[in-house]
Design brief:
By secondary structure, this protein is of the alpha/beta class. It folds into two domains: 397 residues, Amino acid/polyamine transporter I (Up-down Bundle), CATH 1.20.1740.10; 192 residues, no CATH class. Helix content is 59%, strand content 10%. It is built from 27 helices and eight strands. A six-stranded mixed β-sheet has the order 5-6-4-2-7-8. β5 and β6 form a beta hairpin.
Length: 648
């Protein structure tokens, strides 16, 4: 099979980007103008100056925040094709490790935003359908659709992106045409392209922070756009954005024109998006809105998978199983995250009950994400030695815009914004504990030369006074260099309980960016007795450690490098293969004289690890042939020894 790990640029790639990336930002017309109108004082809701100013704010927010910051500038900061705030941190972490705090704040708030996005988009569409068909129960239908969205995620973003892309292309075409027909009735609405009207609104409007909070909703999908870079590719996103932005602006102009020309039709909870549709088209338009809302959830869901995958690789999240439905590494499915998001989305729908209530909570957490991305972007510019005359004004400009939106959205805290902040706070605590607890533990991970251990094992293997532990004894090592060994493995083999075996194996796994890549190298320490295997496995292969080891051992047996037959005479004469035993060594903390904060972090780290995916599960080892051993963390090692060189 042809190996591929980049998203191809072309019509199919562009359509996939439209289907995956722009669901969130593309369905914002469903609720943005409604939130703005409801945020204006009665009597000013159809005032031309205010409406033109609000539309101007939307146009320039999409231009400055989404187009310039994300599509033009931030998408350049990719980590081997992957995007998102954690990819940005990965580019600078070797020099600026302390920036992990900024990264995990941004990642936590983005994940929290991913919980409310599917809820508000789907329920907004169903409320529009309820106007036409009042008998439709809003909450049950919304819950059914949300659950269905999450249940189809195992198909993968590539398979979802193809039909989604066609539907979203029709969606954007539809909202653009509807906008054109609506704005014809008030052509002066195009004055909104003049930023002066936005400035006038910001200066003169009452409750300006309420309006700013509503305007910000038009760009909430920008961060997900960056996170989905690995799913869809840079060029596909940039080209498709030209069309997407054009249709969005046309629709906002059309909604604004309708509001100005129908002042007597402004009632509480009026949604201009549905009212600009001709009567004969209403059912089709609402059905399209429902499908678009379903697809809108995809951007945040796939973005959440990317964040968790990157967090695992950066030691910010416990190891969990990741599946790759396609041959593109950036397109993944993480079952635990998928179904956790599903449960939380159901909770949000049941808690808030309507899109109007969700609007009051929506947007606060994502402003924090955007601010954190901006700060990391500045550090990245500094790391890449960009001229300060360029980076400082640019970053200050975006910080000013995003700080204004943040202040505006803080008014939402008491009206439901606290829910997403609470969820983000829990995610932040988990990431902070895991990262720092692992660092404390890894300060104990020392590496020793393997030669003395090999010499000792040669004698142990023939010492019949020691009970035989296994015919083939396998340790998975994290030592990058063949001449090294973790001290914990040496301790397990010799000090804790001398382990006599006929053959010793030390296995190191390299994960490859190629989907089906598989090769291995063998270092022979003692012929027929002691080996190190370096396995190079593609991401589509998964991790099946015992399967890999048995496959390699069989090939080595064919070339005469090893004898796999049992050493027990009664079994050997029957040509029965010798047993394999895998040993997983875990360090535990006992009686360590550490500061209270570090001791607490280490305790919480082990508590999280206890309830997360075990090493046996991650390595896909048969539990019946695994021995789990514990060795103590040593305080002497904590007092200034080398830090782990783990790369798995």
């Amino acid at each position: 099979m042809k190996q591929q790990h980049k998203v191809p640029f072309g019509i199919m790639g562009i359509m996939m980007a439209i289907g995956i990336v722009y669901g969130d930002i593309g369905t914002s017309p469903l609720y943005v103008m409604k939130a703005i109108v409801n945020g204006l004082p009665k009597g000013l809701q159809a005032n031309p100056d205010y409406i033109i100013g609000a539309i101007s704010c939307i146009i320039w927010t999409l231009t400055l925040q989404t187009t310039i910051k994300y599509v033009i500038v931030t998408l350049r900061a990719d980590n081997k094709g992957e995007g998102g705030i954690l990819s940005l941190f990965a580019l600078i972490r070797k020099k600026y490790r302390w920036a992990y705090i900024i990264a995990i704040i941004g990642a936590s708030t983005l994940l929290a935003d991913g919980i409310i996005t599917p809820s508000i988009t789907v329920i907004s569409a169903i409320e529009g359908l309820n106007v036409l068909v009042p008998s439709i129960p809003i909450i049950p239908v919304t819950l059914a659709i949300i659950i269905a969205i999450f249940l189809i995620q195992p198909l993968g973003t590539a398979r979802l992106g193809k039909p989604f892309g066609r539907i979203m292309f029709l969606w954007f075409t539809m909202i653009g045409i509807l906008g054109i027909f609506a704005l014809i009735h008030y052509p002066l609405i195009i004055k909104a392209f003049n930023p002066v009207y936005a400035i006038k609104l910001l200066i003169s409007a009452p409750d300006i922070f309420v309006i700013l909070g509503a305007v910000f909703l038009c760009t909430t999908g920008a961060e997900a756009l960056y996170s989905d870079l690995g799913h869809c590719g840079l060029h596909n996103i940039r080209v498709s954005w030209i069309y997407v932005k054009s249709t969005l602006i046309l629709n906002y102009l059309g909604q604004g024109a309708w509001v100005i020309t129908h002042p007597n039709n402004i009632v509480p909870d009026i949604n201009p998006f549905f009212t600009i549709m001709p009567g004969w088209f209403s059912f089709i338009g609402v059905a399209m809105a429902t499908m678009a809302a379903i697809i809108a959830s995809q951007a945040l869901i796939s973005g959440s998978f990317t964040i968790i995958s990157e967090a695992i690789s950066l030691d910010l999240w416990p190891n969990i199983k990741i599946k790759y439905p396609t041959e593109i590494k950036g397109q993944m499915f993480i079952p635990q995250i998928n179904y956790t998001l599903m449960v939380l989305c159901v909770f949000i729908v049941l808690t808030f009950g309507s899109s109007s209530n969700m609007e009051a909570a929506y947007g606060l957490s994502i402003t924090i994400t955007m601010l954190m991305t901006t700060l990391l972007l500045f550090i990245y510019f500094f790391f890449m030695q960009r001229p300060l005359w360029f980076s400082i004004p640019l970053i200050l400009f975006f910080v000013t815009i995003e700080s204004s939106f943040f202040i505006a959205n803080m008014f939402k805290f008491a009206h439901g914004g606290w829910v997403t902040i609470l969820i983000a706070g829990c995610i932040f605590c988990l990431m902070y504990i895991w990262y720092n607890g692992r660092r404390i533990k890894n300060h104990c991970a020392t590496y020793v030369p393997i030669a003395p251990t090999i010499e000792c094992l040669e004698k142990i293997s023939v010492d019949e006074s020691i009970p035989k532990f296994a015919t083939h004894l396998v340790y998975v090592t994290r030592a990058k260099y063949p001449d090294d060994m973790e001290s914990k493995i040496s301790y397990s083999l010799i000090n804790k309980q001398p382990k006599r075996a006929d053959t010793y194996w030390f296995v190191y796994l390299h994960r490859s960016d190629e989907p089906y890549h598989f090769k291995y190298t063998v270092n022979t320490f003692v012929p027929q007795k002691m080996f190190r295997l370096d396995i190079y496995s593609g991401f589509k292969q998964g991790v099946h450690m015992d399967k890999f080891v048995h496959l390699i051992c069989k090939e080595m047996e064919e070339t005469g490098q090893v004898d796999l037959m049992s050493r027990y005479p009664s079994l050997r004469e029957k040509n029965i293969e010798g047993d394999f035993r895998f040993v997983v060594v875990e360090r535990i903390a006992r009686n360590l004289d550490l500061p209270a904060i570090k001791r607490t972090l280490l305790f919480l780290y082990y508590l999280i690890k206890k309830y997360s995916t075990s090493d046996t599960q991650i390595l896909d080892l048969d539990p019946s042939v695994v021995t789990l051993e514990y060795v103590p963390l040593r305080f002497s090692q904590l007092a200034g020894q080398t830090e782990s060189r783990d790369s798995i």
